[in-house]
Design a protein that fits this description.
3 helices, 72 residues, mainly alpha
């Protein structure tokens, strides 16, 4: 979640992350961006992200400087 060139507001995207950290039994095998985009749970991932961004006032305040209650 963050700034993306050409977007007026922060957006969420899938990236290959934590490459420096090894896979562990606790976290499992990390997916690359391409693997994640093809994963059968990717639609659940986006639904969860959308829900958090639309309904969590702490997240909205942090990312956008506003909340639904303030209207600012």
């Amino acid at each position: 979640m963050g700034p993306v060139e050409g977007q007026p507001a922060p957006v969420c995207s899938l990236v290959t992350g934590a490459e420096a950290a090894p896979d562990t039994p606790f976290y499992g095998r990390k997916l690359t961006r391409d693997e994640a985009l093809r994963h059968p749970w990717v639609s659940d991932y986006w639904e969860t992200i959308d829900h958090i961004l639309e309904n969590d006032t702490t997240v909205k305040q942090h990312l956008y400087g506003t909340t639904a209650e303030s209207g600012a």
